[in-house]
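From the pipeline queue, job 12 of 40. The input is one protein chain; the requested action is below.

Action: predict structure.
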Amino acid sequence: NTQSIIDMTTNKETISVLNSLTVTCNNGVQGFRTAANSVTDPRAKTVFLTRAAEIQKASEELAAEVRNLGGAPQKSGTVAGAVHRSWLDLKAAVTGGDDEGILTECARGEDHAIKAYDSALKKDLPAQTRAMIERQRSGATTNLDIVRQMKKAT
């Protein structure tokens, strides 16, 4: 049946988009946890851990949607290489022990995440998936705003 073939193709493309965002989220969780363990400011540590927990929830939500569509969630891979490279830059800032450098790299990581969400939103997605991605993109924007405010305060 032609409709089921179209649905399978749409699901496959949607699953690919969701898995890409899952990898992006997992990189963000790792990055914010690394930042939390590396900053000296206790408030920044708390903010980073809170943001990591929120991103972890987003990752779990994406993985659940992949399963709902009949796919297998992807936990890691080369899909989000640019974001991963950004979080590697964070590790370099961490070794310098520089809170401002850590904040700069966290902002860069969230900027990459926002671009990944923007790219996903350009795809033809089911309405409920699009709504979830838009909501999660808003969370990434909030993360970026928080990090920028923290940077201004340093």
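Job complete. The longest helix spans residues 2-38.
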